Structure formats: structure tokens, C-alpha cells
Amino acid sequence: MQVRAENISKRYAGMAALDDVSLTVGSGELVALLGPSGSGKTTLLRTIAGLELPDSGTVFYNDRDTSEMRIQDRGVGFVFQHYALFKHMKVMDNIAFGLRARKKNKPKEAEIRRRVMELLDLVQLSGLEGRFPSQLSGGQRQRVALARALAIEPSVLLLDEPFGALDARVRKDLRRWLRDIHERTGHTTLFVTHDQEEALELADRVVVMSKGRIEQSATPDEIYDTPATPFVFSFIGESSVIPVAVGNGRATLDERVIDLDVGTLPDGPAQLYLRPEDVAMVTDGGPGIPGLVVSTRRIGGMRRVTIECGLARHRIEFDAPAEIPIANSQRLQVRVIGGRVYGAGSEGYETEKLAASATSDFKWAKAEGWLDR
Amino acid sequence: MTEARANTIRINKPRQAIGEGPRTRFALIAIALVFLALMLIAPLVVVFFEAFSRGLGVYIDALAMPDTMSALQLTLLVAAIAVPANLVFGVAASWAIAKFDFKGKSFLLTLIDLPFAVSPVVSGLVFVLLFGANSVLGPWLADMGIQVLFAVPGIVIATIFITFPFVARELIPLMQQQGSSEEEAAVSLGAGGWRTFFLVTLPNVKWGLLYGVLLCNARAMGEFGAVSVVSGHIRGQTNTLPLHIEILYNDNKAAAAFAVASLLAMLALITLAVKTMLEARFAGSLAAQRRH
């Protein structure tokens, strides 16, 4: 089933939790709502479920306006961050709750039992139907909660930070397992998370939210490779920011011209966003930005180096091969091989991909001489 | 040798990281026990001791007096009306306050506490002013042939007023702490309002509810001040047990007064015993819920 939210706005005590948000989740799609706390992602999820009413805007389920539908009739499988299992009921009764609550086509008790056993098998908890929720671990509780939501054969599955309360290890396992279940059952699924790794690994499409608005809605690759806004760039992955000035189609740093392709970016101040892999250390004596090493730390097979460069001592982080010894206070030169420039335009942000790629046709002006400072 | 000894001591009596020394602990326990003995146990013992001071015959005579029997009946009747009324009101009010946001919520909370804040005598007088012969409602009620003051309805109304915070006060913090995500889960799974209430909300608060009802019942049977103002003290008709005890005591029938008092104390003890029994009976599921 397709879910479509159109122009949803919602205010809490004068603060906009959702500001004219529109979102479509295609049938069978697995979509992540990603954003920091307070970005409105949970409010959007709850509004789609019918647990909150929007101040304006409409939610459609397959072109059916849901504003007249009771939440009971929507067929929403909702999974809560803190499970919200019925504490006084055994696992069996928790999962059977939705089926027993049915008024129309209520299955016979034997059929209900059969369905519960099937679901327990699906969530790999067979044999635990007689336990109380308090006798289960966090990961098991969340799987029971998912089985309970799946029991009503929901038209859409909504999960609110489903793994937020679990430890890192269990979270990773459950992530893979949820992807697996989605592939087997094919439910239209929307989940909320503040964990970018979770969103990028699990979802077909990631919707990044900030301050009640959608910043970008795209595939994980697009989100990482072509972030639409500075917010998305800095929220996803590691990033360094350097203020640059754009004028006459060129970017400058500290009034020294840099050979940057800034495309059609309007004149004025702009920000250069860099990921660690967008910066390479100059080892062949070629031109580069000089910098002073302020810290290094080991990350896996690489060494993450932080340098200060420019007059205002902007910090840039990049990865260097671990076998190259780099010490604090050492001077070295780096070359920018990727990254994005965002200028502050009148209609929000415009972006241009840098003349990126691993080629070194990207040069810093040497003429001014601060390379030799 | 000394080292071994030290080790043994450490094994037998592990030092607590947090806690008081043995002397402090002893002093605290002693203070609590002495206080309990003086303020709770001694008076209770005295009641029963005085009740039987003139022998068993006097005791039984005092209980068998028609006035005592009618006072007992009236007390039980009042409790039987006031407690269910406050059960319904308390659950409704706590449900509204804990699960919904609306304007005037804190005002409603304050109102619920009002009977605790106001002296019972004042509460009684309020009803005299409201239903008395010179009030607005008085003549109208008299025309309808309904007597509220100095009759059972007045006593019931005053008792409901005095006891209505008990259930709500017990449930509101409990329900607020539990939040409404279980209810949200239930409705998203297709359960209607009543089903959600009886299968999800009520089981989660049943112990708090039981405790509130028992406290409410104890107070309903024992209330003196407000009931005293509205009852009119008509023997055999509008005397509850506490009022009857006072009359006996003022008539210099101390033994009889204490005999009836022991009856009232017994009702309270039975209430407590029932609560303890239920808790012991369902200790397992109670602990399971608390752990969650």
C-alpha cells in the first residue's frame, strides 16, 4: 500500500514540529526518517499512524483520505521505541491481541494460536510464548513487539526508533534481521532513527529531516554522495567546513584565489564542505594547502589527521595511510580532491559539485606565496 | 594469623559501600519501633483492653444494642455507596488527567485535593448551607419531598466529598508514570476504547486502584467531622459508628464506647488483612510487573 502525506503542518506550543511536509512512501518500500532529536521525524510518523492529528494537511493511504478513519480501522502496525508490550500478558497474548480485538472476520482461537506460533517462528522466538515481557531481553521484547504489529497483517508498518533502546551489538543484528523480514513480507515500511548508519544500511530511501522540514529524500548513495543541503552534508558522515568567498566564478580563501569550479554559484560568502576522503596528503612535493597537525588518531587501517590551515586556522580532517608517521605540530600539505561548495542564495542553498575526482587538475594558487609561510 | 582473621571477617561481613554504621542503624530502627509502639500499637491495644474492662457481657450487650446495630448498618450502607461512586469518579479523573492534555488540567488537580485541604467540619457546614432550610436548594428539595440534611443522603454526600481524593490521588501518579504508549499500541492494533481500558489500562493500575479503594473505604467508615455536622445525631437513624461512639462516650458509657470502637477498629484491620492477603496471593505477578 502506498502512503502519502501532503502538506502536513503541526505546532506544539507555538513551535513548528512539522512545517508543510510532504512525503510519499511507495508500496513495499522501506524508508528511513532520519534526523536529530526535535527534527519532527517522530511527529511525522505518529501523524501518519493517526496517533497525532495534523493542524493542516492530509494523509492518504492508497488515495484514501485517512482524516475520517479511526486509528483502529487503519491497519497500522506500530512498533514503539520502548516496546510498549502489555506487561501483564504473556508473549502469546501480546501477539494475539490484535487478532482477538477484531470485530469482523475474527479468527477462531485455534487459528489465532497457529498464527502466533508462525509469527514467533518468523521472529525467531519459538518456545517463548509462555513468558512475560519482563522475562525477556530488550532485543527479544522488540521482536515480540514487531510480531504483535505484524499479526494484524498491517497495510503499513511504522517503527519509532525501533532499536534506540538496545545496545550496539543487538542493534546491528536486529537491523539485518529487519531487512530480512521486510524482504520476506514486503510490507510498506517507514521507520524513524537518529542513527545515520542504521538509516543508510537498512533503507531503500532515506528522508533527512531538520527543524520540521524535509532536507532531502533520496537513496543512501545519493544522500552520502550528493547531499542537497549543508545540513545533510554535516549530519551524514564526518565533515570539515571552511568558509570561502565566491566572486567572478572563483572561490577564494583568505583573499587568495583558489582554482575551484563553483559553477553558477552567485557571488558572496560560501562554505566548502569536505569529507575526510575528499582531502589527500601531498606526498609528491606538488602544490597543496599547508597546514599544522593538531591531532592524530588511529581509525582502523587509517590515521585520522586534523590540521589547521589558513589565517583563521580552519580545521580540516582527513585520512592518511597508517604507515606514514605523522606527529603533532608537524607541517604538511594537503590537496582537496572532492567536496561540495554551498553558497547562501536567496532561495535557500544552491550547490555545485566541485571539479571532483581523484585527478590533480585541481590546484591552489601558489602565486600569493602563503604556501611557503 | 591476624591476616587470616581479617580475611574471615571480610568474608562473613562484607562492608557495605553505601549505608550507616551498626550504631546508627540500631538507633534508627529503635526510633521507628518506639514511635510505632507509642502512636499505633498502644492505642489499638487500649481500645480492646477498655472494651473488655467490664467483662464480656457488657461488651456483647454494647454491640447488641439496637442503636449500635443500626449505626453499623448505616456505616456499611454509606461506605457501600461512597466507595463505588469514588471508584468510578477517581478512575475517570485519573484517566483524563494522565492520558490527555486539556486546558484547566492543573485546576482539576487542585480541585481533587480540596477535600484534603479543607477541614471536614467546614466541608459539613458547606453542605448545611447548600441544602439547609434557608438555602437555595433547601425549599425546592423540601417541595419534592426529599430530605437531604439530617438524613442518609446528606451523610452519603458528605462522605463522598471527604473521600473522593483517595482513588484519584493513588492512580494519577501511577498512570502518569506509565504513559500512554500501551494504550496507543492497543488502539493501533484495533482495540476500541472499552477493550483498551479493561484489557490494558486497568490491569496496569489494579494494585494502585485496590490500595486507593481500601483507603477510601477505611475513611468512609471512619469519617467523623463532616458527617457529624450533616447527620443531626438522630439515634437509631442517622448515627454512623463514629458518631455512635461519641454519644456513648459522652453518656459516660466508656466500656460500651470502646466496645463499639473495637468494632470499628476491627473493620479497619479486616480491610488491611484483605489487602495483605491479596498482595501475598498475587506477589508473583506484582513483582513481574514492577521489574518491567
Describe the structure.
- The complex is a heterodimer of chains A (373) and B (292).
- Chain A is built from eight helices and 21 strands.
- Chain A has 373 residues and is α+β, with helices and mostly antiparallel strands.
- Chain A folds into two domains: 223 residues, 3-Layer(aba) Sandwich (Rossmann fold); 135 residues, Nucleic acid-binding proteins (OB fold (Dihydrolipoamide Acetyltransferase, E2P)).
- In chain A, α3 packs across α4.
- Chain B folds into two domains: 31 residues; 237 residues, MetI-like (MetI-like fold).
- About 2% of the residues of chain B have low confidence.
- The chains are: A alpha+beta (373), B mainly alpha (292).
- Chains A and B meet through β6 and α4 of A and α10, α11 and α15 of B.
Quick gist of this model?
Helix content of chain A is 23%, strand content 35%. By secondary structure, chain A is α+β, with helices and mostly antiparallel strands.
